[in-house]
Amino acid sequence: xxxxxxxxxxxxxxxxxxxxxxxxxxxxxxxxxxxxxxxxxxxxxxxxxxxxxxxxxxxxxxxxxxxxxxxxxxxxxxxxxxxxxxxxxxxxxxxxxxxxxxxxxxxxxxxxxxxxxxxxxxxxxxxxxxxxxxxxxxxxxxxxxxxxxxxxxxxxxxxxxxxxxxxxxxxxxxxxxxxxxxxxxxxxxxxxxxxxxxxxxxxxxxxxxxxxxxxxxxxxxxxxxxxxxxxxxxxxxxxxxxxxxxxxxxxxxxxxxxxxxxxxxxxxxxxxxxxxxxxxxxxxxxxxxxxxxxxxxxxxxxxxxxxxxxxxxxxxxxxxxxxxxxxxxxxxxxxxxxxxxxxxxxxxxxxxxxxxxxxxxxxxxxxxxxxxxxxxxxxxxxxxxxxxxxxxxxxxxxxxxxxxxxxx
Length: 408
Hints:
By secondary structure, the protein is mainly beta. The chain folds into two domains: 21-161, no CATH class; 186-406, Jelly Rolls (Sandwich), CATH 2.60.120. The protein has three helices and 25 strands. It has helices spanning 3-10, 47-57, 95-105; strands at residues 34-35, 74-77, 80-83, 126-127, 135-140, 145-151, 155-161, 186-191, 197-209, 215-222, 228-237, 240-248, 253-256, 259-261, 269-274, 282-293, 296-305, 311-320, 329-336, 347-358, 361-363, 367-372, 380-386, 389-394, 405-406. Strands 9, 13, 14, 16, 17, 18, 20, 21, 23 and 24 form a ten-stranded antiparallel beta sheet that branches. Strands 15-12-11-10-19-8-22-25 form an eight-stranded antiparallel beta sheet, with no helix packed on it. A three-stranded antiparallel beta sheet has the order 5-6-7, with no helix packed on it. Helix 1 crosses helix 2. The longest helix is centred in the first third of the chain and has 11 residues, at 47-57. It is globular, with a radius of gyration of 24 Å. Residues 1-32, 131-172 and 174-180 have low confidence and may be disordered.
């Protein structure tokens, strides 16, 4: 739906009372019992919330009930950052959110029933927000101009006329001077002692991540006869989390539940999509051999939620059969993508239970080697936790007390 169409659709909706200014109050309110999707905190989810979502997307502004969040505010829900008004937890506030609200009003499928939205709250479900509600005070003058100051961790000032309402711009991430480079830091290579793997997997927990970070938690694998690939979680911004499976070196084509997988800018077939992974939850990356097609073989990538057993199919990629099966080692690495830097952003990831299936037998690593990039991300370190487990840390103040070499 074009933005001009949205503007025409929502302009002049008198029922929304767009000529008034509403003051937020009661800083620190818990908002316990709020319904997800109740955009204006009126007490219930209704088509009015859908219309207000369209107004916000069109840049027309909305009014909120006292004590409610401003559109676009980042709040912590169940330990995860969520954008207020982004009801499907994908790509910010947009017309798709409005459609979700109308579907809810019509009694259609909940978000949790749609692939890729496994951890977003269902519309209408009750939740408690972990962060305080910001305070907004407003004063209207005789000229119908109002100035409001919103205070959270920072203070912003906005001016509005009687034809619109006060809106707030979310705090933007600042990285200083942008540089077109990636920081990768630490690499852990796990060795299995035998090649010919038909399946490989590892478990991980993203223990913490800076909310502004552009980050990729990669699990790297290679085929005996050529070609290599990676599966991993990505975070593009606080409310935009994804998973990606890419194969380099001559993959033929790829498919995912929503369609074909494109050739990316690096020459890889990339099967990616939304997946709202959560910090502190244990997942398993898994890549396994599939069926053959002529002189080629499909390889399937999945993410398993260890606690629930749910499986998210990322996609499958067809590679030449001449590549054979998997080589005898895998690696993990973390990529902080432009413009994030290790000196400014922080994250911790724990890995364990790497396995490779060879000849029907499940192998565990016989050892692991640690290396660091010669230049990038000196603020990184790896700690062995015993067995096959290790934790990778990035960020300001990180002390590298584990030297490169044999990790275990």
